[in-house]
Amino acid sequence: MARSIFLASLLFTSLLQSAQMVNLEEGLQNPDRFILYDRNPFNIGMNAGLAILVTFSILGVVLGTIALIARGLGYRKKRRT
């Protein structure tokens, strides 16, 4: 057990030494190398609309699946009298 912990810590430290850390100021000096994402402004309304669409689509699929399973099992609503 101690040997596996030692090997894991040795692997972790060897990987940590090869990691390269750059702050934002250094990254902006050479953006082609360090900035790996699109820095253009985006439309918040479009992103909110897409998020709502995806959220309600997932909700519809989950509820539809539950309804189909309930119908397949023969579940019926109990009527209140």
Count of all domains: 1
Low-confidence stretches: none
Number of strands: 0
Q: Main beta sheet, described? A: none
Order of helical and strand elements: HHHH
Radius of gyration: 26 Å
How many DSSP helices?
A: 4
Helix content: 55-70%
How large a portion of the residues is in β-strands, by DSSP E? under 5%
Average per-residue pLDDT, rounded, comes to 88
Outline type: flat
Structural class: mainly alpha
Q: Give the termini distance in whole angstroms.
A: 66 Å
Notable traits:
81 residues, mainly alpha, 0% strand, flat, transmembrane, signal
Can you offer a commentary on this structure?
- The chain crosses the membrane at residues 48-70.
- Residues 1-21 form the signal peptide.
- Keywords: Membrane, Signal, Transmembrane, Transmembrane helix.
- The chain is mainly α and 81 residues long.
- The protein has one domain (2-73).
- The protein is built from four helices and no strands.
- The chain is flat.
- The termini are far apart.
- The mean pLDDT is 88.
Topology:
Blueprint: H1 2-17, H2 24-29, H3 31-34, H4 44-73
Signal peptide: 1-21
Transmembrane segments: 48-70
Keywords: Membrane, Signal, Transmembrane, Transmembrane helix
